[in-house]
Amino acid sequence: MALRIRLFAILVFAGAVFCGACGKTPAERGGPGQGGSAARPTIVFMTDFGVANDAVAVCKAVIVGIAPDARVMDITHQVTPFQIEEAARFLAGVTPYYPSGTIFLVVVDPGVGTSRKAVIVKSKKGQYFVLPDNGLITPVIERDGLESAREITNTAWMLEPQVSSTFHGRDIFSPTAAHLAEGWDFTLAGPVVPQLVQLTSKVSRTTENGIEGDVIGLDDPYGSLITDIPGEEFKKLGYGLGDKIIVQLNKKPLSVPYEKTFMDVPVGEALLYIDSRGRIGLALNQRNFSQVNKVAAPGTLFIPRKGAAIKK
């Protein structure tokens, strides 16, 4: 009987210890953790590498080797090669949907191997960006604010023993993102960057005659035109849904209705609409506007005020 009582007491004590440990974070238990949180770190990846080679897979292998618990998600790896402005637009469009602490890894880097800096940027929203200092981060920082930026010079953050001159995505950016995911202090990556490279953002211009804007991209695979004309500015021109508008696309007149969505016009017909990001777009219902009209970015678009004469 005494033996049974002693065994019962031991089991009760062990259960209490186990339950006490269950209530602790990994860091409190002496195990791995990021800032005391058990949440899996997220790395969001974008490049212009394409998918016809092994570059993206190599970068992900580097990440997994350093931060096996990180969740790696993709924006796209089909940014038009070397097009920093396009990548910056994609990045700014995606980041609002991710929480503080997310790590964005972006490699669109026509200046790889030159004197351009490799950096970690932290926004005031608490998101991290590992990328070349070539203007990619400009739209995000203009919207969310800059908390700090560091140049990546500490070789402990890199893939050693040697850094190539042409594949910093593998040798610098991917390992840096992985170390951030492992909880490393980004201030140890290198010195403060006092001034980041800035893109010159294209902005439409509203005049007494209407709005002058630019075609800045294609909404592929559909071929719809993306412009830099804000929908709110367009609404000031006086048009209502269903109105026909004679715009000038690359200085050539084009008659299109202003509609809410694609199926508001017959299949194959054109429309002007406010896209999901709040900008003016031109599209064909179930057809490719760019291919049919032989129009691509860059280009120009003029929309007159309602009742105004067409700009010559």
Describe the structure in your own words:
The protein is built from seven helices and 14 strands. It has 312 residues and is an alpha+beta fold. The protein folds into two domains: 147 residues, Rossmann fold, CATH 3.40.50; 100 residues, Bacterial fluorinating enzyme like (Elongation Factor Tu (Ef-tu), domain 3), CATH 2.40.30. The strands form two sheets. Strands 7, 8, 9, 10, 11, 12, 13 and 14 form an eight-stranded antiparallel beta sheet that branches. The protein starts with a helix and ends in an 8-residue tail after the last strand. The N terminus is likely disordered.
**Through-space gap between termini:** 105 Å
Whole-number tally of structural domains: 2
CATH architecture designation of the largest domain = 3-Layer(aba) Sandwich
Count, helices: 7
Spell the H/E element sequence: HEHEHEEEHEHEEEHEEEEHE
Radius of gyration: 26 Å
Looking at the structure, the CATH topology of the largest domain is Rossmann fold
**Beta-strand level of the residues, as a percent range?**
25-35%
The helical percent reads 10-25%
Give the tally of β-strands: 14
What is the CATH level 1 assignment of the largest domain? Answer: Alpha Beta
Residue stretches low in confidence (pLDDT < 50, at least 5 long) are 1-37
Structural class by SSE content: alpha+beta
Question: Biggest β-sheet, characterized?
Answer: 8 strands, antiparallel
- What would CATH call the homologous superfamily of the largest domain? S-adenosyl-l-methionine hydroxide adenosyltransferase, N-terminal
Inertia-based shape: elongated
Q: How confident overall, as mean pLDDT? A: 88
